[in-house]
Recover the amino acids of this structure.
């Protein structure tokens, strides 16, 4: 039963992300140095930002757990 709930949750999240990506496909310009820039869809920029934030949070939590041991 839990396996079914997990799969339904994954499907719902996938559909929400697909709709979000299709509605946010406008290009944005990212300037990462004074003379260099890259143009990406807004949904990609948001996904990368979320992934980096989640990665940093996981690293911080793991370091805090290791320091408590």
């Amino acid at each position: 039963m839990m396996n079914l709930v997990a799969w339904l949750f994954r499907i719902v999240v996938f559909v929400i992300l697909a709709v979000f990506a299709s509605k946010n496909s406008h290009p944005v310009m990212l300037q990462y140095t004074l003379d260099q820039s890259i143009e990406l869809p807004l949904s990609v920029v948001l996904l990368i930002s979320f992934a980096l934030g989640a990665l940093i949070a996981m690293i911080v939590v793991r370091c805090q757990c290791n320091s408590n041991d």
